[in-house]
Design goal:
heterodimer, A: 283 residues, alpha/beta, six-stranded mixed sheet, four-stranded antiparallel sheet, B: 421 residues
Chain lengths: 283, 421
């Protein structure tokens, strides 16, 4: 177990009547690659925004642990934080390098340092040639990779990635996963939200299943399967997120995973609670 | 890691620099702030008067056809004939139908003239009838015309001018018989000498007066309008494009980001206002006779007052516009919110131009927008009243602080990361 980096202590977050997160307590240690898994609206993005200080908890606190053991509000340690939000957020009138340089300067990093690091990472992501091009015409994959470079150029210890492979082609997604593994080897902490269970299983040491604003499970992929008595992460996920009070609209949400989940969850509209055994591979 | 030296305001400057780069690459900003004033103002003040002058010359060169209707027993006056020929009018004589109620009643000529005006054969009818009075010559007249036709209106104008001159000639003859000149009869009380020479104000003071009626209004209105587009682009635009979230995740504090954005908008706005005022003054002086428009001589206090008033006003305006725009989640929403705000600046600025500065009540110098407009007027007129300066400066600082505090509050909103996308 590594040294603690971030602590989420009894955090709830509400937006008016909507309770996005309820009583969430988590510990993140240095060097972890953690997957946040959940459906749309489960609370993954809200949790990521709390972790980077964009949101303030309604109840509870999020603290950053310095190497000397002292605790700080996350607002004060953004210098060590790299974030790739769901919308990549690139300025389309600037080139890729100008986008990266802007954020590096805001973090107080010299242009030469940011440039050297950017070029090295751009080679790994295969977009070195695009650094001086305007981002206006970039594909989704190029934008995602540029956003990753921007988040990494100032050498952060902690990286928060909100669905970094959503909408990417197979090759681009592989490159991004490869980069995450490289960061892990460098000892950085990566918190990674995704819909793709297979990807989470492949990349993350630890998976946190978030459902309806609550943490349903937190552990390694194998421990989740063991705890639920299932033999795949997908089945473990279904077992962990079954909820008799689920709304009909969830059926659409689960369409993101695999066709069989849609079939299963659509039965909730009838008010019946299906058994886990009803899930079949051939459906 | 090699870090550049940290000093207060560094991050704000980084933000301002990037925003300026982003703005100058935006064609909408360039069109709105540079191209429009560069084209529109010279068009209004130089091209339009030149065009109108050309149109007048063109109209003058057109020969117009007028039918003159006279009674059988009357002869057409030679003096009027000469004047009308000089006015490029071709005459066709007809007999005036007897039994008219008065000469202005078109009678049977109504339909005829309307058709003739349309086909261009006749542009007006001049009816003349000599009357018996004690004057050497006395006539009744009327001009029938079609007010919806430009040439018919022009014919009427030329006829009226010629008849006016003819009348003066008759008056001159009549007055000569009693030993008077026309000037003696119509102007028994006269201004002696050059009217303008009696003005004791210097050319510089006159220039200050003229500018005091223009500059405060233009600065108030143009500051508000020039800051609008960049304010929206840098706030609601960022939210709409989804760039705000990643920006807020950086190490920069929200106050630093706000200050950087404020600085960028202020620089763009100030540049645009300076450009607009320069073009306006150049175009305005083009319309006036040479030497008419001088340069005001302003003392140090006046210059300082002027600069301070503009800075404080710009601080408030930009902060208010940023605060309002940042609440909007899209550019369209921000535009809808900010457009009516312009009236909140235009109305008091316009009003302030007509407030009498002599014996002015002190509260005017505390009222928002009024105070800076009046301050600029007084500065341009060289009035340096310490009480007035103290009131407008302190209230303007207060308004600027309140505006910045409000903008800061808006910029700390949690929902700033939300985007319509």
């Amino acid at each position: 177990m590594g040294a603690p980096l971030l602590s989420v202590r009894g955090v709830s977050k509400s937006f008016g009547e909507v309770h996005a997160l309820q009583e969430v307590s988590l510990e993140f240690t240095r060097g972890d690659v953690v997957g946040l898994v959940g459906s749309n609206g489960a609370g993954k993005t809200t949790l990521l925004r709390l972790l980077c200080g964009l949101y303030r908890p309604t109840v509870g606190e999020v603290v950053h642990h310095a190497t000397d053991g002292s605790e700080h509000a996350v607002d004060s340690v953004r210098q060590n934080l790299g974030v790739v939000p769901e919308s990549t957020g690139l300025y389309h009138r600037l080139t890729a390098w100008e986008n990266i340089r802007y954020h590096s300067r805001l973090s107080g990093v010299s242009d030469s340092h940011a440039w050297n690091r950017t070029v090295r990472l751009a080679r790994a992501l295969d977009i070195e040639d695009a650094l001086h091009r305007s981002t206006r015409g970039f594909s989704k994959g190029m934008r995602q990779k540029t956003a990753l470079l921007r988040a990494l150029a100032h050498d952060p210890d902690l990286l928060l990635l909100d669905e970094p492979t959503a909408g990417l082609d197979v090759t681009s997604a592989r490159k991004v996963r490869g980069l995450v593994r490289m960061l892990q080897q460098e000892g950085r902490t990566v918190i990674y939200s995704t819909h793709h269970l297979a990807e989470a299983e492949q990349v993350c040491d630890r998976i946190i299943v978030i459902h309806n604003g609550t943490v349903r499970a937190d552990g390694s992929p194998s421990s989740l399967m063991l705890d639920t008595g299932t033999d795949s992460l997908e089945e473990a996920y279904v077992a962990l997120t079954l909820d008799a009070s689920r709304e009909v609209s969830d059926a659409e949400t689960y369409g993101w995973f695999q066709r069989r989940w849609i079939t299963l969850l659509s039965r909730f509209s009838t008010g019946e609670r299906p058994e886990i055994e009803e899930v079949s591979e051939d459906e | 890691m090699s870090e550049p030296k940290r000093w207060p305001g560094r991050v704000a400057l980084v933000v301002a620099k990037k925003e300026l780069l982003d703005l100058v690459r935006d064609w909408r900003t360039l069109v709105a702030l540079v191209l429009v004033p560069l084209i529109l103002l010279p068009l209004l003040f130089i091209a339009l008067p030149l065009f109108l002058e050309g149109e007048i010359e063109e109209l003058d060169s057109i020969q117009l056809n007028v039918v003159v209707q006279l009674s059988e027993e009357d002869d057409f006056p030679e003096a009027l004939d000469t004047l009308l020929q000089g006015a490029n009018i071709s005459l066709l004589f007809e007999q005036l139908e007897p039994g008219q109620g008065n000469l202005s009643e078109p009678g049977g000529d109504e339909e005829r003239l309307r058709l003739a005006v349309r086909d261009g054969s006749t542009h007006a009818i001049l009816r003349l009838e000599e009357t018996a009075t004690n004057s050497t010559e006395s006539w009744n007249y009327a001009i029938l015309h079609d007010s919806t036709s430009e040439l018919s209106r022009e014919a009427r104008g030329r006829l009226l001018d010629s008849i006016g001159e003819w009348e003066d000639e008759i008056m001159e003859v009549n007055l000569a018989e009693v030993g008077l000149t026309i000037d003696e009869a119509t102007n028994p009380i006269r201004w002696d000498g050059d009217f303008t020479a009696a003005d004791v104000s210097t050319a510089a003071e006159s220039a200050g007066f003229v500018l005091s009626m223009l500059i405060p209004l233009l600065i108030a209105v143009w500051s508000a309008s020039a800051a609008m587009q960049p304010s929206i682009d840098l706030t609601a635009g960022e939210r709409e494009r989804g760039t705000m979230e990643s920006l807020l995740c950086t190490a920069a504090t929200r106050m630093e980001l706000l200050f950087g954005k404020w600085l960028a908008v202020a620089i763009v706005g100030a540049g645009a206002v300076l450009l607009q005022i320069s073009i306006f003054l150049a175009a305005f002086s083009f319309l006036l006779p040479a030497g008419f428009f001088g340069i005001p001589e302003l003392g140090a206090v006046s210059i300082l007052s002027l600069v301070l008033a503009v800075i404080l006003f710009a601080t408030s305006v930009v902060a208010i516009e940023l605060a309002l725009a940042v609440r909007a989640r899209s550019v369209k929403e921000a535009g809808t919110t900010l457009a009516p705000l312009l009236m909140a600046f235009i109305a008091p600025a316009l009003f302030a131009q007509f407030v009498n500065l002599e014996g002015i009540e002190l509260w005017w110098f505390a009222a928002p927008v009024f105070n800076v407009c009046l301050a600029m007027r007084e500065a341009l007129l060289g009035i340096n009243d310490p009480v007035h300066i103290a009131i407008w400066a302190s209230t303007s600082v207060m308004y600027a602080v309140l505006a910045v505090a409000w903008a800061s509050k808006q910029f700390n909103r949690e929902d700033l990361v939300e985007s319509i996308n």
